[in-house]
Amino acid sequence: MIAVNARPYPYELSPARTALVVIDMQRDFIERGGFGDSLGNDVSRLEAIIPTTSRLISLFRARGWPVIHTREAHKPDLSDCPPSKIRRGNPSLHIGEAGAMGRLLVAGEPGNQIVDALAPMDGEIVIDKPGKGMFWATGIHERLRDMGITHLVFAGVTTEVCVQTSMREANDRGYECLLIEDATESYFPQFKAATLDMIAAQGGIVGWVTPLRELEASLP
Length: 220
Ligand code: TIU
Fold this sequence. Notes:
This protein is of the alpha/beta class. Helices cover 33% and strands 21% of the residues. The protein has helices spanning 27-30, 35-38, 50-63, 83-87, 140-147, 159-172, 189-204, 212-218, and strands at 2-4, 11-13, 18-23, 67-72, 98-99, 102-103, 125-129, 151-157, 176-185, 208-210. The strands form 3 sheets. Strands 7-4-3-8-9-10 form a 6-stranded parallel sheet, sandwiched between helices. A hairpin with a 2-residue loop joins strand 5 and strand 6. The radius of gyration is 17 Å and the shape is globular. Bound molecules: tricarbonodiimidic diamide (TIU). Tricarbonodiimidic diamide binds next to helix 6.
């Protein structure tokens, strides 16, 4: 086990059993004209974490540890998208409607692709998830179990929506979870700060949080 300085106390990382999960670093959330923009958000904050997230991915790739990418993506016929999700927020453009980067949150569209700087490599798992959480309707729990993964390191966007939901789902399934705080971002700085605090509160009720430099300093 490798001890990583973290809040609320050191995270014990198990090298052979740890995977990195990069949540939804897709153009839909990071670039103008995508889903995040259609909800009225200032999307410019999110691209700032691309360099840190890239370093984090490199750290795992260099050791041959698994890297898993997720995308929030619906089937073109939207059969996996509840009407409540389409209606929610009275957005300027709804899920499935055509925006500047193709149909919003629809698999295969230009906006649904992970940003070039963080593009998955051959052999890495890419999960299209219809919900905010990575476990709902994806089958990933069984795949991780088959791989012997017990520890998940998290990055991606947005901190309090898809990242936190996925981390809570993972926590309930018994994974030991660490969130890299400078490789995740929110449209709302106060929600990011609150999310980091609530994950680590109560002795790590959801898991651990730490900056990338602490992980880098701990790994051989
Ligand atoms: N709106 C928002 O903050 N997030 C999402 O809709 N999805 C993700 O977080 N990926």
